[in-house]
Design goal:
Layout: E1 6-8, H1 9-16, H2 23-34, E2 37-39, H3 43-55, H4 60-71, E3 76-77, E4 92-93
Helix pairs in contact: 3-4
Length: about 100
């Protein structure tokens, strides 16, 4: 699907910051993420996130993740497809059908 699998640093914060994450889950997620390239935010990501939040109510994390995908021309993989379907210029995929 992507020759350069990667993720937004915001995704790492959101996933590993989940309050009820069990140690075994944290270890598995960390191992998975450590095999992928991290995409850090840049000023364009901030500006895109601002525009997204002006258009519709959404969390800061979701806005920054979507903006990172838009800025870097990446597919957004999420179980919450409906939260992002309204955004133009982004392809959203549920990896867990």
């Amino acid at each position: 699907m992507d020759n350069d699998p990667s993720y937004s640093i915001i995704s790492r914060v959101e996933v590993l910051g989940f309050a009820r994450l069990q140690p075994i889950e944290k270890q598995a997620i960390t191992e998975l993420l450590d095999d992928l390239r991290i995409i850090y935010l840049n000023p364009s990501c901030y500006e895109i996130a601002i525009i997204l939040k002006q258009q519709r109510k959404m969390s800061l994390g979701d806005a920054l993740i979507a903006a990172t995908c838009i800025e870097n021309n990446k597919i957004l993989a999420t179980r919450n497809v409906a939260d992002f379907e309204w955004i133009e210029n982004i392809e959203v995929l549920n990896p867990l059908p």
